[in-house]
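Hello,

I think I submitted the zinc ion job twice by accident. Can you confirm which output corresponds to this input? Input:
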Amino acid sequence: MKLKILKGSNQIGGCITEIVSNKGTKIIIDLGEDLPDDNVSKCENPNIDGLTIGAKKYDAVFITHSHGDHIGLINYVLDDIDVYVEPISKIIYSLLSTFTHKKIRFKTKDMNFKEKIVINDDIVVTPYIVDHSSYNSSMLLIEADGKKVLHTGDFRNHGVKGKLFLPTLKEIGPVDVIITEGTSLSRGDTKYKTEDDIVKEAKELFAKYDQVFILQSSTNIDRIRSFYKAAKATNKNFIEDVFTSNVTVSLKIDSIPNPKSFNDVYTWIPRRYLNKSLRFKTKYIFPFLKYSKQKSYVNNKYVLMVKTSMIEDIEKLYNKNHITNACLVYSMWEGYKEKVEMKNFIKELKKYGISTIIDIHTSGHADKKTLGLLSTLKAKKIIPIHTSKKEELSNILDNVYLLALNEILEV
Ligand SMILES: [Zn+2]
Ligand SMILES: [Zn+2]
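Support: Only one job matched these inputs. Its output is below.
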């Protein structure tokens, strides 16, 4: 079989990998947009012949998880090519697209953990659940022509599902080639904090404030759970913004804090949603009105998940004396702080009594120590992608092979 990186061999996000069997069956792994910056729209057709333009030349597309830099361009895939997505990742992607006015590809095929998918009686793909900041992320084992390739997708082992990592590698066993994410290679630390460390840190911090505003990704379910635990431990109501509540309720998993099955979780409906169409409101807003009761914040002890678009709401709380001793917890990648929208938001908060900003975060990606564990698979070649410093991987692992963009590697 042959491997090729069509995009993203030297950047974090937006990676597209092609695998072709000797018989000519062609699959793609991940089709994401480049991570956004302030000036450029990153969601354009990648113009890949036979995949997103022209006549069909590919047999299937497999998506590792619901982050935009992995799934964001699937609506461009030609209609007659199957796109495989894990069902919960599909729900998250669909909601994200709806709330951000993006086109959704409705026709996808389900991909379930440990169930083999056979393409043209030739390539076999098996997804394995992996710990990452996007719920139910997969790593993919691809088998063809008597060879095995593992595509890790984005992963880590310091989160809630981290303990599954080594047993999963053991189950997969030796492979010929690994294609691994290497996000942390350009970052300083060698070992990251665990999600349990986050809970501990949050409990200590929440105890010092009456109102805690949280800025985090709504699809980072583990983090929602961590902050909910800290809110409970410090006797605060937990309030999700309505987008987050749409995500947590739709997943239908009782252990995930959501207003439908938790009587101490509420929903905040941002004022700007009042301008949405009746159709949108009927489906995504009105069902949450019953969870947005006043009592969620009147005792002035609450944890509220916010978005940079919610300044008007924060102003309203401030004017009603619901912000008296508050801080903002920043729980996202540090780099987003450089975005104009984020800078403005943080500046505006000061007007409304929130001038303390505290970082409580841990990466969604494998630290260097965890990347080292890939050696257990005894691969003959390990190819780093999803990194801006791929050459650093050889300081951690043997057999690193730096595959250039569009270079073909015969496995
Ligand atoms: Zn990614
Ligand atoms: Zn990711």
